[in-house]
C-alpha cells in the first residue's frame, strides 16, 4: 500500500516527555512533507495549544490541517479557515459543571483566548492551561457564564476517580455527548458522534484520499478511534495497553526515542 497521509497525535506521540519535538522527528516529518505527503494533527488540545507544534512542523508552509478538540473542529492551518465545527448542546456545560462540583472534580472549557475553569484550580487544570498555551481564569458562576457554544468540556481529577466516573457519565449523557478519558486524569466531553475518526472522514473527502491510504499514530484513549479507522493504525511504544491492543503496528521506539521517525522510515 502506498500511503498518502500521515495523521499525528501530539502529546506522547510527536512530542517527547518534555513536550518537545526532537530534531530527528521534526526533520523526518519535514522531509515527508517535502516529498508531497501531507501531515495532519489530530489532538484533544484547543487550537492555541496546537499552533506552536504545527508551526514547528511547517504545516502552514505545506498547507495541511489541524483538528483540535478531538475533531470537533477542522482548521486549514495555512489559511486559518475553520472548515468544520460541531459544538456541545448549549445547556450541557452547566449540567457537567454541577456533576463536577458534586463529585469533587475539576472542569474547564474554552473560548478563543482563555481556559475557563468552573472549579478551583487543581494541578491538572493548570497542566491543561499549560498544554493549551492559554491563561486560565476561574469563574465561580461557570454555569451561567458559559452561555455560548463550546466544542468541549474537560473534567480533571485523580485517575482512580475519573476511571470510576467515566462509565457513569457516559451512560448519563449517552444521547448528548461523547464521554471518554484522553489521559488517566482528563475526562473529555465532546459533541455526540464526534471523535478523531469522525473528523478524519471529512478531511479525507477534502483531500481526495482513501482511508486505506492513511496512517494514524497515537498513544492515548482518544486515539483509539482513528487508529482503528486508519489504513494503518500505529500505537506508540509508550501507548496505553488498550491502544496497543487495537493497533496494526506498535513502534519499537517510544516518543522519547523518535518513534514517529521510525514510522516514516518504515512505511513511507
UniProtKB/TrEMBL annotation:
One of its GO terms (molecular function) is magnesium ion binding. InterPro entries: Cof, HAD-like_sf, HAD-SF_hydro_IIB, HAD_sf. It is an enzyme of class 3 (hydrolase). Keywords: Hydrolase. The keyword Hydrolase applies. GO terms for cellular component: cytosol. Its EC number is 3.1.3.23. The keyword Hydrolase applies. PROSITE patterns: COF_2 (PS01229). It comes from the Bacteria. NCBIfam families: Cof-subfamily, HAD-SF-IIB. This is Sugar phosphatase YidA. It comes from Blautia hansenii.
Amino acid at each position: 500500500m502506498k500511503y498518502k497521509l500521515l495523521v499525528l497525535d501530539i502529546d506522547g506521540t510527536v512530542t517527547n516527555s518534555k513536550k518537545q519535538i526532537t530534531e530527528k522527528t521534526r526533520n523526518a516529518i519535514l522531509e515527508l512533507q517535502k516529498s508531497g505527503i501531507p501531515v495532519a494533527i489530530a489532538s484533544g488540545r484547543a487550537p492555541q495549544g496546537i499552533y506552536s507544534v504545527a508551526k514547528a512542523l511547517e504545516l502552514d508552509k505545506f498547507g495541511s490541517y489541524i483538528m483540535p478538540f478531538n475533531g470537533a473542529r477542522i482548521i486549514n492551518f495555512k489559511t486559518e479557515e475553520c472548515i468544520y465545527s460541531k459544538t456541545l448542546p448549549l445547556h450541557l456545560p452547566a449540567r457537567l459543571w454541577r456533576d463536577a462540583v458534586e463529585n469533587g472534580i475539576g472542569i474547564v472549557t474554552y473560548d478563543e483566548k482563555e481556559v475557563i475553569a468552573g472549579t478551583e484550580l487543581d494541578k491538572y487544570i493548570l497542566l491543561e492551561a499549560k498544554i493549551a498555551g492559554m491563561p486560565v481564569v476561574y469563574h465561580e458562576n461557570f454555569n451561567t457564564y458559559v452561555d455560548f457554544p463550546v466544542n468541549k468540556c474537560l473534567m480533571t481529577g485523580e485517575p482512580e476517580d475519573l476511571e470510576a466516573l467515566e462509565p457513569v457519565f457516559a451512560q448519563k449523557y449517552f444521547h448528548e455527548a461523547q464521554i471518554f478519558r484522553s489521559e488517566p486524569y482528563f475526562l473529555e466531553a465532546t459533541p455526540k458522534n464526534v471523535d478523531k475518526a469522525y473528523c478524519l472522514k471529512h478531511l479525507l473527502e477534502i483531500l481526495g484520499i482513501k482511508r486505506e491510504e492513511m496512517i494514524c499514530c497515537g498513544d492515548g484513549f482518544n486515539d483509539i478511534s482513528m487508529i482503528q479507522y486508519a489504513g494503518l493504525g500505529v500505537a506508540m511504544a509508550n501507548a496505553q495497553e488498550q491502544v496497543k491492543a487495537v493497533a496494526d503496528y506498535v513502534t519499537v521506539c517510544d516518543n522519547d526515542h523518535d518513534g514517529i521517525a521510525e514510522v516514516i522510515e518504515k512505511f513511507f
